[in-house]
């Protein structure tokens, strides 16, 4: 099993060099100051002034992107220049018309990532050029976000019981104000607050995209259309690009809060990407949450971090001065945070857990075999099922081919295993499914090409959010006092 796909060797290679050659990372935040440009011509000057809609050919896009990567590699551009050059490129790109079938969208993803060594932002520009338009690309980087379903400022009722600063003396006190923790929970108007018989499902986002946008074209839509599930979601401030320990507080609080406002019932949690880490961290260090969660379904999770983490921070660590974001550094393979999480049984589930992931994930690798980053052990025998979509579906089936990091959200097996998990005790089991039937369609039944586009175009939104995130850091945040 290769842990680093050939297509990404450049980035894995630079990561390995960085890991081998590095001294232990000091547990402090280093705020990045933007380095002054030397007294010379700005090598990105031309790119900062591209006319709008002037790039409609892949060749022209890639030669412009090469100018940026060359300037980064030769340390000739600082962060402000790099950010404005990328922004200028997105403004100059004239996207092709939107693909209209699910298979066309999946084919664009596969073409982009097969054999690619690009950073995520370069791939995002290319996907955008090919018509994967999330709709708000031309909005100024500083003003992005702000749509209702992605709000971090929701007004939710007081809980009927005291859950702050802690629900149990076994838990640490939250370090984040209760108002912020509660306002990050988005409760749709259809939510029944435990009055009916529906199961409550909390949807937790991953790195760089809020919960509303993440789940609109997949689990939020599919769950709302059932008679038995009642979904809501979290919009973690800073698009989950800040400290994972803080992001985990949002999850731990939401579990208690939602249980409290639904009459003390259990919840289930569906997570994408980093959401799996936030949730596992919350379950580990806030033990009182464990008795309240019936099921955890982890889609494209990265319990081991990823060898491709740096593709989300263009130029880093080749040029350390460009900095990265806290949660991306915490998701490098075997980071300090990952090693801490996995220690003392944290690499095993605390509650019944169903993991679903793709071997062709362009962001999280490795993602196959028992070394898959999504793979969770079961030392406490609470029930775990680990499911790689290509292994379950098989190479001959429509759903057994290329699926990227976001693509697993629309995968038919992800949905059918979720239904199975939520409707049975313990995790979802492939043995209860009609696998050939499930794997016969490229996306879950009930999803349209528009839903798939919305989901896959998150790559573009996420890359732009990660690019804009500030303040940049060059090492992981310190551990909180409760972490032992
Ligand atoms: C960058 O794109 C512009 C179109 O805006 C094009 O005129 C120019 O030749 C491109 N530059 C490079 C280096 O390809
Ligand atoms: C709530 O979840 C816990 C942990 O998964 C489980 O042990 C318990 O049986 C669940 N309770 C109900 C009523 O489903």
TrEMBL record:
<dbReference type="InterPro" id="IPR029058">
    <property type="entry name" value="AB_hydrolase_fold"/>
</dbReference>
<feature type="signal peptide">
    <location>
        <begin position="1"/>
        <end position="22"/>
    </location>
</feature>
<protein>
    <recommendedName>
        <fullName>Lipase B</fullName>
    </recommendedName>
</protein>
<feature type="region of interest" description="Disordered">
    <location>
        <begin position="148"/>
        <end position="171"/>
    </location>
</feature>
<dbReference type="InterPro" id="IPR053228">
    <property type="entry name" value="Stereospecific_Lipase"/>
</dbReference>
<keyword id="KW-0732">Signal</keyword>
């Amino acid at each position: 099993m290769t842990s680093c796909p050939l297509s990404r060797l450049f980035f894995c290679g630079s990561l390995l060099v960085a890991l081998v050659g590095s001294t232990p990372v000091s547990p402090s935040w280093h705020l990045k100051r933007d380095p002054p440009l030397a007294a010379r011509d700005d090598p990105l000057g031309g790119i900062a002034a591209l006319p709008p809609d002037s790039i409609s050919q892949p060749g022209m896009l890639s030669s412009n992107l090469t100018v940026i990567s060359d300037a980064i590699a030769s340390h000739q551009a600082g962060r402000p220049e790099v950010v404005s050059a990328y922004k200028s490129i997105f403004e100059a790109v004239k996207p092709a018309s939107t693909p209209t079938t699910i298979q066309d969208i999946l084919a664009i993803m596969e073409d982009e990532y097969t054999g690619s060594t690009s950073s995520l932002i370069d791939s995002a520009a290319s996907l955008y050029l090919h018509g994967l338009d999330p709709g708000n690309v031309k909005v100024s980087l500083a003003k992005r976000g702000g749509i209702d379903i992605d709000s971090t400022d929701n007004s939710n009722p007081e809980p009927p019981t005291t859950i702050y600063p802690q629900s149990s003396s076994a838990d640490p006190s939250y370090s984040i104000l209760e108002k912020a923790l509660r306002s990050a929970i988005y409760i749709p108007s259809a939510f029944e607050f435990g009055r009916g018989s529906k199961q409550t499902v909390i949807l937790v986002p991953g790195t760089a995209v809020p919960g509303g946008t993440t789940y609109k074209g997949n689990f939020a839509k599919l769950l709302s259309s059932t008679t038995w599930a009642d979904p809501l979601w979290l919009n973690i401030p800073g698009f989950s690009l800040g400290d994972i320990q803080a992001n985990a507080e949002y999850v731990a609080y939401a579990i208690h809060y939602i249980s409290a406002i639904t009459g003390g019932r259990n919840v289930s949690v569906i997570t994408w990407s980093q959401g799996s880490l936030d949730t596992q961290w919350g379950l580990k260090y806030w033990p009182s949450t464990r008795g309240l969660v019936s099921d955890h379904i982890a889609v494209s999770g990265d319990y081991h971090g990823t060898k491709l983490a740096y593709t989300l921070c263009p130029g880093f660590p080749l040029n350390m001065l460009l900095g990265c974001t806290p949660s991306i550094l915490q998701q490098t393979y075997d980071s300090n945070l990952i090693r801490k999480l996995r220690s003392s049984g944290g690499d095993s589930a605390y509650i019944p857990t169903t993991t679903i992931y793709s071997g062709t994930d362009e962001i999280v690798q490795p993602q196959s075999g028992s070394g898959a980053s999504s793979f969770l052990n079961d030392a406490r025998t609470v029930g775990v099922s680990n499911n790689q979509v290509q292994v379950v579906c098989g190479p001959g089936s429509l759903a057994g081919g290329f699926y990227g990091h976001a693509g697993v959200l629309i995968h038919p097996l992800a949905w059918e295993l979720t239904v199975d998990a939520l409707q049975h005790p313990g995790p979802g089991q492939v043995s209860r499914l009609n696998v050939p039937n499930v794997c016969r369609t490229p996306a879950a039944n009930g999803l349209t090409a528009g839903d798939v586009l919305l989901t896959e175009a998150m790559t573009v939104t996420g890359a732009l959010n990660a690019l804009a995130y500030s303040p940049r850091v060059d090492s992981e945040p310190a551990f909180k006092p409760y972490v032992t």
